[in-house]
Amino acid sequence: MTLRLKTKAPEEKIIPLLKDSIAREIKYLNIGLKKTKERIKFLQSKYKSKSTSAPQNIDALDRVEWEGEELTFQKIKEKIVLLKSIEI
User: Fold this and answer.
1) What is the pLDDT of residues 25-83, one digit of tens each?
2) Contacts of 62 (CB under 8 A, 6+ apart)
3) Residues contacting residue 14 through CB under 8 Å, at least 6 positions apart
4) What is the pTM of this model?
């Protein structure tokens, strides 16, 4: 897919700005990915399980948090892949 941008600014200023913005967003997403992964690992360790469906003794709030963290982890990974696929 090709995307066109219209701007009154010169191309030599816009292209580096776009590249830097994408790189910075990837950096921030990777930080979020790391924090999310750490939280998932903490919950896995706490309940000695790799999945929220396995432990019977899991606290309801922890289950909701764990499932949310796993969903967030997947969404962040998808965003990183999309951003890395952009060619400028």
Assistant:
1) 999 999 999 999 999 999 999 999 888 777 788 899 999 999 999 999 999 999 999 99
2) 43, 46, 47
3) 5, 7
4) 0.87
* Radius of gyration for the chain, computed over Cα atoms and rounded to the nearest angstrom: 19
Residues in the chain: 88
In the prediction, which pLDDT does 31 show?
A: 98
Both tokens assigned to 20: 């830097």
Q: How far is it, in rounded angstroms, from Cα 76 to Cα 50?
A: 20
Domain range annotation of the chain = 13-84
The pLDDT value recorded for residue 7 is 94
User: Which tokens sit at 24?
Assistant: 């910075």
Q: How many helices (H) and strands (E) does the chain have?
A: 2, 0
Taking CA atoms, 62 is separated from 5, 9, 18, 53, 85, in Å, by 45, 49, 39, 12, 35
